[in-house]
Amino acid sequence: MSRPWEPDELAEINRWRVVPDRLRHWARTEPDRTFFRCGSGWLTFGQVDSKTDAIAGGLSKIGITKGDRVAVMLPNCEEAYLGILALAKLGAIQVPLNAYLKGEFLRHQLGDSGTMCLLSDAPGIAEALITTAAGLFVAIPAVIFYNQFLQNIRDLAQRLDTFALEVGAQIEKTFT
């Protein structure tokens, strides 16, 4: 039979249940320790903490706060993981979406979930723009994560509203 938890033990356990706190701890104590790999390169705790702070700051700048729902429509990539961790830092609610959603299916998921913002790559943003142009849903702020197709994304970003341009510039600084 197990013994009851002491109050100070419970406090320590609860402190470590929050992912951003754990990330910040390891970024402070071992910033150069490798954390994860996606694609060809490894990221350290320090790099991940810094990049997710910048992304969270950009999202906060466009008004995303604790409890807001943010759709993440990305394939398995570095930006997806960084976006999810940034949302956790903000206390925002991640709404995971299949990266291949289109048209009415995409409109329904975004509308039904109460999403305030969409984190996606160029194909996802393009699909959201096409859906918007077809009048299937009211436009929501979109955030583009820059990747190896930076120039194509810059061209697309020029067509987005001022919110997306402001956040895109912040994210571009993070990944370069």
Structure description:
The structure is a single chain. By secondary structure, the chain is of the alpha/beta class. It has eight helices and six strands. It has a four-stranded parallel sheet. A two-stranded antiparallel sheet has the order 1-2. Helix 2 crosses helix 3 (45-61), helix 3 crosses helix 4 (78-90) and helix 5 crosses helix 6 (122-133).
List keywords for this structure.
globular, 176 residues, Rossmann fold, two-stranded antiparallel ribbon
Class from helix and strand fractions: alpha/beta
Mean pLDDT: 76
Q: Largest sheet at a glance?
A: 4 strands, parallel
Terminal-residue CA separation: 54 Å
Top CATH class: Alpha Beta
Q: Give a count of the beta strands, DSSP E runs of length 2 or more.
A: 6
Strand content: 5-15%
Summarize the structure.
By secondary structure, the protein is of the alpha/beta class. The chain has eight helices and six strands; from the N terminus they run ααββαβαβαβαβαα. α4 links the parallel β3 and β4.
Compile the SSE list and pairings:
Layout: H1 7-15, H2 19-29, E1 34-38, E2 41-44, H3 45-61, E3 69-73, H4 78-90, E4 93-96, H5 103-113, E5 117-120, H6 122-133, E6 142-144, H7 150-157, H8 162-175
Parallel strand pairs: 3-4, 3-5, 5-6
Antiparallel strand pairs: 1-2
